[in-house]
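As described in the Methods, two query proteins were run sequentially through the folding procedure within a single session, without resetting any intermediate state between them. The first query and its resulting structure tokens are shown here.
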Amino acid sequence: MKNLLLCVLPLFLLPGCKQKPIEYDYALENDNGIFVEKFDTLVQDENRYTSNNIVFTPGSEFVYKYYLQAKNGDKYFFQSTKDATQLPARQRFNAWQLVHSDRLTDMSVEKVILKVRPGLQPFIEHFPDYDQTIIEYHYMQRNGKSQYNEATGVIENEKNIWLHPPRSKMFRMLELNPFPFVQAPYEVENKWEWSLKIGDAWGDERWKKWEGQIENNYQYEITNIKEIETALGTLECIEISAVASSRIGQTKLVSYFHEEYGFVKLEYTNIDTTKLVLELSEIKEK
């Protein structure tokens, strides 16, 4: 999985359509702390990793509102710089700026939409053993347009759900944070861990720069099961507290997971001690 964890592809590479799901037998294999589905080699259906999903079903869309909270309590959003589309691809990653919540423009990104795709294209062309459900993140501006999209993956089965967070523009800082991750049994005091090596290309002077590779070690624990108020109503959620530690510092995540709607709230503490909060506001086509 190491070559998959950092994989992000532009949306325009992702043609496809909905297909009728078929369930297959599989075994669960522990891959560095994450349980993944392993099928017989004769099973080549590209929907084999989505057919048993309960939360991340093909065609579903999860709309998240967000904000970045500075150390002084002020809240910010972000938007691409005016010249972003003219820059080389690698430079576009950093071509963004923070915008105070009181000074938003039509170009300010206000929402992130997670869309679940059927099939395995185009990842299967690059990684023959790709074993995740493909998702897209759409960064929605205040004017209703999406200037930039990315594709990545989620692992869902009866043992665990492990999700790549959004990681474009300002959200690149989340590469250093614990990824949303819940593992059965869904009981208070259940603990688990995994690790990930991260290259210095993910560094940014706006939060942290470093040289060489670091290794994040993640520790998770279910700390509570409680009702929280959400845009979808009052929901009983599993509260998961997570910490990521490496030689450059520590980050945290408190997430709230609902067994039908998935991660309804994510509260990150970033490497620079700012806060990033994502809250599920709507589910479409579920």
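Immediately afterward, the second query was submitted; its sequence and tokens are:
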Amino acid sequence: MSDVKLNALLSLEKLEVGLYRGHSWDLGFRALFGGQVLGQALAAAQKTVADGQVAHSLHSYFLLPGDATKDVIYDVESIRDGRSFCTRRVKAIQNGRTIFFMTASFQFPETGLEHQFTQMPDVPAPETLESEIESYKKLFANMPASMQEKLSYHEPIDMRSVQAINPQAPQTRDPIRYVWMRATELLSDDIAEHQRMLAYASDYYFLVTALQPHGLSIMDKDIRMATIDHAMWFHREFDFNQWILYCMDSPFAGNARGLVKGQFFDMQGNLIASAMQEGLMRKVTASDSN
């Protein structure tokens, strides 16, 4: 198990009422990993709600690229506190500029009408698949120490792709991807902890699914990708200590944007959460770069 603890990253320092600071990890992307901002912003909002209220949805916009070498300040505004629901607005700030904006809604759990009109795909068990970290270590066997350090920050989430995809040799395929995932560190029984961890993980492999029909990889230097907005709905309580299947597909891409949707299922086939994301997906030419 890695010594890198995701829970520590998502545990914020309180600066003032409604004002929090989070540290950053450099995961080796061109900018701050969007999942970090999602998880930390949700953590900030969770700190301001009444005991027993649980997040059921979040809607966010990524406004500017974040700097992975700097801390992030989270400013939480209380929009509404009702008897059942409450709403929080969170701004993520770096260098005095708002880089991210989230609205999150919380609810006291209650009983009601229930149905599930979707099924978990029949896929190989996670134990039969190789972890993504081990796959990348083989691909980059002679990686420099700096890259090894960045790769270690991916270890807190054990991810295992059902479809073996080599980012160094992309192939044209349908825009569908299934990934098993779970936390590698033991989480408590606090559902808020599991929710912010899943929000963090929800940004992995999401937008890149829209590249698959085009035979392109995020490692392609001619590809420019950035998340524009990200929404998530939590349907029921879940245990991220156990395997969860993340099912992603991209129904549309056009106008330099890609749309992806995701569903999370537990091992019993229960739908526990859903997500949607749209992002910039632009292929540039040499003349565009000049």
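The chain has a mean pLDDT of 92. We note this only descriptively and draw no conclusion about the first query from it.
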